[in-house]
Every structure is written in C-alpha cells, then in structure tokens.
Amino acid sequence: MSRQFLIQSFAVLLCPSARSAMAQCFPDSSASWCFFSLDNSAIVHTRMIMGPDPDTVVFGRTFQKVEEYNDAAGNGSWQFVRHYFVRSDSAGQGFVALLDSMQEYLVMDIAAITGDTVHNVLMANTWGVDQMYTIGSVVVDSIVTYTNNDISVTRHYFASPEWGLAFPTSNEMFWQAGIGGSFGPLAIESVVDAFEHVSCLRQQDTYVCSMDFAYPGLPGIPCDCPLDSPLGIENPVTARLVLVSPNPSAGLFTLDARIRSAAIYDAIGIHLFTTNTSRIDLAAYSPGIYHAHVLFENGVSRVQLVVQR
Q1: DSSP secondary structure string, 132-182?
Q2: Tens-place pLDDT, residues 112-166
Q3: CA 24 to chain CA mean position, Å
Q4: Taking all residues of the chain, what is their mean pLDDT, rounded to a whole number?
Q5: Is 62 helix (H, G, I), strand (E, B) or coil?
Q6: Residue 249: DSSP 8-state
Q7: Contacts of 246 (CB under 8 A, 6+ apart)
Q8: Using H for helix, E for strand and C for coil, what is the string for 193-253?
Q9: What is the model's pTM?
C-alpha cells in the first residue's frame, strides 16, 4: 500500500465543543503506555501496563492497577518502579488513589470543553524512583477527533499556565477517552533539562496512538508497546521466592537469604531507602503496605511488607 493512499485514508476532524454522554477515561484492563525521556543526554524508556488483574478496592471504591517500569540504561535493563490505582466515573473524570495520603486525586476530565480550566489536577514533576507530585490547574486548548483505519479517538489537548516552557511538546500532552493520559495516569508538570516523547498507546489489540515519524499521533498503526511485564513472571533465573518473617510485623523484617541489596518503597512507589543486609527496619514508618525490590547474586524478587501496630 502506498504512502499516498495511506495519507488519503486519514480523516482528522475537529470535535465540537459540547458536553455529551461521557466515555470512560481509563480502560478496564490490558492496556499499555510506552514513552521515553531524554534527561541530561540519557534516554530513559518507560512502559506502563494495566493487566487483566481483578479489580482492586481502595477507600471503598473500585480501582484498576497500573504498573510502571523504567529502562534507564536503554539496553533492556528494566526495573519495576511503582503501582498506580486508577478509576473512572460516569461524569467523565479520572482519578488516582495515593495510599500514603489515604486520598484519591483528580487526574483528568474529558467532560471539559475547549477553554475550560480544570482545577486541582494531580501531576508529576519528575519520573523515576524519586517522583514528586504537585496539584495545579490546566487549560484545555483544543479537542480533536482522529480517525484512521476505522479507529476513532478523541483527545483533549491541554497545558498549564504555571508550566512556562518546562513541559513536553504540546501535541503529546493530552487526555484520551479509553486510555487515560498520553503519559499514563499523570500529566508531567515539568522536567528540567529533559523532554518526554510518546511512542505508543495500546488498548488490548487496538493501537490508539502511534508516534511514527511519518504519521505522528494517529490511531490504527501498530507500534511497539507490549502488554506484558518486561521482567516476566516465570523466569527462574531473574525471579525467585523470598520468605520474610515475621510478616506482618511491627516494623522489623528478616529475609531468608543473603542479598546484595533491597530497595524499599512505600505503597505508591516512592523510594524510602536501600539496604545491603537481610534485615529491613520500618519501625520508624507508619503502619501500612510497603514493597521491597530484592537483588540477589543470581536473581531478583519483589516482596510485600505489612507494618501493623
């Protein structure tokens, strides 16, 4: 098929500025977001995955779990970073639950129309382990529907007057019904000396955004964004069972093996500390759920730690 024929088959339509029956913000399962950033000359690849897991009840509401993985070296050395818990409501809004603050936060609003200012939106101002969160306002610049290969998607492009020049390319910062945000659950408020670039957004076997250099942003074009974890789940070389005792505990945990290191994260994936001993001390931290990413001589594992008092 010629490029000329492909171009002629595209339809790009401006969406009218009117509120109507709302579509769902986030998918129900089996979706992936793939993008990369250039940070001080280092390319960091990010893959976010919503698997077919059962619904998760948080604060009495039903959420879906999204996992974030980063490849900071760009050579396939993927690492698990954090979990997100997301949900959609019938009014066109999307939310993320942050377990450490015991609250949920607004992250998108596909009921907004062009020119609307959406207040109290949770955003990220860094990616990676040491992610920071801020709450601010965003303005919807335009609403556009793209149709290609019998697939139609509607995007709310937005920006923040608080960002200045420190935000990704405007045509890559959007909310899209059915997939959430272009960079996963959260908008990127600012990245110093860096830029972010969307590679591919996928909802089950439907590719809803491809940033192919020839046809940037169109749906219906296959792109590289797998639906499975880059770490795998059955690899005996890279994953192993770790026993922890006691678990739950009042804050002191002991692993059953010699380790090289254990990175400890809170329930939303914020890095707390790293230890090179098999004894993990969370006595100074609040009761709740924590995660340890454990590195051995011949493999890695993730374990959940529960602090109860």
Answers
A1: -EEEEEEEEEEEEEEEETTEEEEEEEEE-TTTTT-S--GGG-EEETTTEET
A2: 999 999 999 998 865 544 567 788 888 998 999 999 989 999 999 998 776 554 4
A3: 17
A4: 78
A5: strand
A6: B
A7: 253
A8: CEEEEEEEEEECCEEEEECCCCCCCECCCCCCCCCCCCCCCCCCCCECCCCEECCCECCEE
A9: 0.67
Three-state secondary structure call for residue 6? helix
Tally of CB atoms within 10 A around 158 = 27
Q: Retrieve residue 167's tokens.
A: 């935000």
Question: What contacts 167, CB < 8 A, 6 or more positions away?
Answer: 159, 160, 173, 188, 189, 190
Tokens for 228, please give them. 């499975």
Q: Quick one: how far is CA 85 from the chain centroid?
A: 10
Q: How confident is residue 13, by pLDDT bands cut at 50, 70 and 90?
A: very low
Beta bridge partners of 79: 70
Structure tokens at 146: 């793209």
CA distance 145 to 155: 6
Lookup: tokens for 32 = 């992936």
The terminus-to-terminus CA distance of the chain in angstroms comes to: 65
CA pair distance 88, 106, nearest whole angstrom: 10
Instruction: Name the residue type at position 115.
Output: G
Phi, psi of 34, rounded to the nearest 5 degrees = -125, 130
For 199-214, b/e burial (b = at least 16 CB within 10 A) is: bbbbbeebbbbbbeee
Structure tokens, 65: 């779990």
Closest alpha carbon to 298 in 230, 255, 241, 228:
241
Q: If phi over 0 gives left and psi between -120 and 50 gives alpha, with beta otherwise, what is residue 164?
A: left
Q: What is the pLDDT of residue 29?
A: 87
Of 115, 289, 149, the residue nearest 223 (C-alpha): 149
